[in-house]
Amino acid sequence: MNKAFLGASLAVMISHGGIAMAENVLRWGAARDIYSLDPYSLGSTSNLAFLNHIYEGLVRYTPDFEVEPALAESWELIGPATWRFHLRKGVTFQNGAGFNADDVLASMKRVSDPESPLRGNIPTYVSTTKIDDYTVDIETTSGSSLFLRDMTNIFMFDAGWLKDNDAEAPTSVGAQTENFATYNTNGTGPFMLESRVPDSETVLVVNEGWWDEPKHDLDRIEFTPITSAPTRVAALLSGEIDLTESVPVQDLERVGASPEIEVIQRSDLRTVMLSFNRRETLADGRPNPFNDLRLRQAIDMAVDRELIGKRIMRGKAHIAGTMVAPEIPGYDADLDLPTPYDPDKARALIEEAGLTGTEFTLTCANDETVNEESMCQAVVSMLTRVGLAPRLDIGPRAVQSPKRSSGKADMFITSWANEPTLDAYSLLVQVLSSADEAQGVANYGDWSYPEIDELTTQISVETDEARRLELEREALRIAKDEVVLVPLYQQPMAWATGDGISEVTIRADNKPRHWLTRMGE
Q1: Which parts of the sequence belong to the Solute-binding protein family domain (predicted)?
Q2: Distance (Å, whole) CA 322 – CA 485
Q3: Which residues lie below 8 Å from residue 266, measured CB to CB, with a gap of 6+?
Q4: β strands within 385-465, DSSP E
Q5: Fewer CB atoms < 10 Å away: N or C end of the chain?
Q6: Is pLDDT of 488 > 60?
Q7: Residue 362: other Cβ atoms inside 10 A
């Protein structure tokens, strides 16, 4: 953590009227920094959740995860697969430009570019047509309402701002491409960027010209990444920060004992899973052993999930046998039976496959999922005991993420919360499907299962919900049988707030929504 952060927080903000004293400053201590200020640069839930304070989509979620109007006042299906959106009038971007149909066209062109990391977030998208200044038609491959849920994470840019700043092309964290939108913002949302120093501090101030009625009472948000868990807890207990969305599970009892701190905890929607490189060869040129189903089955049997849940997650995680959380549509309780821990059978399978002593690297991040480093250390130990020779590659996610996406990781961690769709279709189309222009964008192992692809295509056009869920369960059964991924658990979620905060909204998707946060009354 930056030493300057331990001093008094800056309490001056720049407003439209000049310099004013900021009465309500939210000091937000996060476990990690955001990747980029460009919301299209990476399909990261935490990155998108932060940027949703600056940018907005045509639609958004209610507290009950129903789709409601945002920059679009209304919409209707005008054909088998065409959605007509009626745009909200009187909305301005933070640079003063008015919002209209041209901005939707520019945004949809940018996000659907084949090089856009968020292209896979809208797999059924085809094209956008301007009808008039405040009406657009969006053509999709089906009339499924899942498209509206996908659109909650597609934020709108100012077309003129993109053009003037040579930022019409998408950027990508994974491909390490950048432009003006990587370091600058211009949204329509409740807050706007004042300053950013990567890995140190990002400051937001209230957008006085926001079109919606504010429910928050904040003047300023000071977002500080504090990657050290002990330092983050110390900052919370000493009152140096007001809120963190990442209390280490090992510190929950101590933090909760403080009368000034409120702890809110539950299981997250995010399922943490082991993943495999499934290309013909590994990055070092060796024939890929993970293409042998027996090895994947052995690894599934060799991991003691119960021990990880008890010792590393302190009993706070939901042990998983399937790849989506119980709250996600498409979940099947019959599949949620974890593979029994059986190291002897795992060792026998490895010997049968002739893979005893196989060397490979498990790539993990020390700042991504809850206690990931400790979990990966335990997995390496468990796999070593059944006759394999894994090595742990640990580092910050900014370093590890490109290894996963470029095929340089042998085994790696996938964590998936099915956002923003909040349906198993998200995992199926983005992770389990074969990689192409619009599908499998997070299929970093490059696996391919035609049966899953065909089922996912059927799901994308199925308008009957019961039939769609049946197809999703069938696809997840195939993925489980083939051990495409090894589900471990839904990770615990623990927020903590100081007594300066009177109201904060925490939902199952674990996204901060500080346009609803209120400080002490």
Answers
A1: 66-436
A2: 9
A3: 492, 493, 508
A4: 389-395, 411-416
A5: C
A6: yes
A7: 20
Residue 74 burial (C-beta neighbours within 10 Å; 0-12, 13-18, 19+): exposed
Q: State the maximum Cα–Cα separation within the chain, in Å, rounded to a whole number.
A: 74
* List of residues 6+ apart from 224 with CB closer than 8 A: 1, 2, 5, 27, 28, 29, 30, 200, 201, 241
- The per-residue pLDDT of the chain, averaged, comes to 92
Strand, helix or coil at 195?
strand
CA–CA distance, 201 with 1 (Å, rounded to integer): 10
- φ and ψ of 285, to 5 deg: 95, -5
Which residues does 64 contact at the CB level (< 8 Å), separation at least 6? none
Q: Under 8 Å CB-to-CB from 196, ≥6 apart: which residues?
A: 37, 183, 202, 203
Angle at 458 between CA 143 and CA 300, to 5 degrees: 130
- Tokens encoding 417: 């919360």
Residue 397, CA atoms < 13 Å, CB-side half-sphere: 22
Percent of the chain with pLDDT over 70: 95
> DSSP secondary-structure letter at 5?
G
Q: What is the pLDDT of residue 1?
A: 37
**pLDDT tens digits for range 26-85:** 999 999 899 999 999 988 889 999 999 999 999 999 888 889 999 999 999 999 999 999
Would you state the structure tokens that stand for residue 104, as one six-digit string? 């939707």
3-state secondary structure of 218: coil
pTM of the full structure: 0.81
Question: How many other C-beta atoms are found inside a 10 Å radius of the C-beta of residue 66?
Answer: 9
The residue count for the chain: 521
What is the distance between the alpha carbons of residues 186 and 253, in angstroms, rounded to a whole number? 41
How far is residue 279's CA from residue 293's CA, in Å, rounded to a whole number?
14
Residue pointed to by tokens 């390490």? 176
pLDDT in tens, 332-375: 999 999 999 999 999 999 999 999 999 999 999 998 899 999 99
| Cα distances (angstroms) measured from residue 520 to each of 10, 207, 492 | 18, 21, 27
Kindly list the structural domains of the chain, giving each domain's residue range(s) and its CATH number in brackets, ordered by start. 54-173 (3.90.76.10), 268-492 (3.10.105.10)
Confidence of residue 506 (pLDDT cuts 50, 70, 90): confident
* CB contact at 8 A, 416 and 369: no
Omega of the bond prior to 420 within 30 degrees of 0, cis? yes
Beta bridge partners of 205: 192, 220
Tokens 């896979």, located at residue: 120
Q: Rounded to an integer, what distance in angstroms lies between the CA atom of residue 422 and that of residue 413?
A: 20
* pLDDT bracket for residue 437 (50, 70, 90): confident
Give Cα 340 distance to the centre of its chain.
29
Hey, which bits of 247-405 come out as E strands? 262-276, 318-319, 359-365, 389-395
Helix (H, G, I), strand (E, B) or coil at 152: helix
- From CA 484, how far away is CA 478, in angstroms rounded? 9
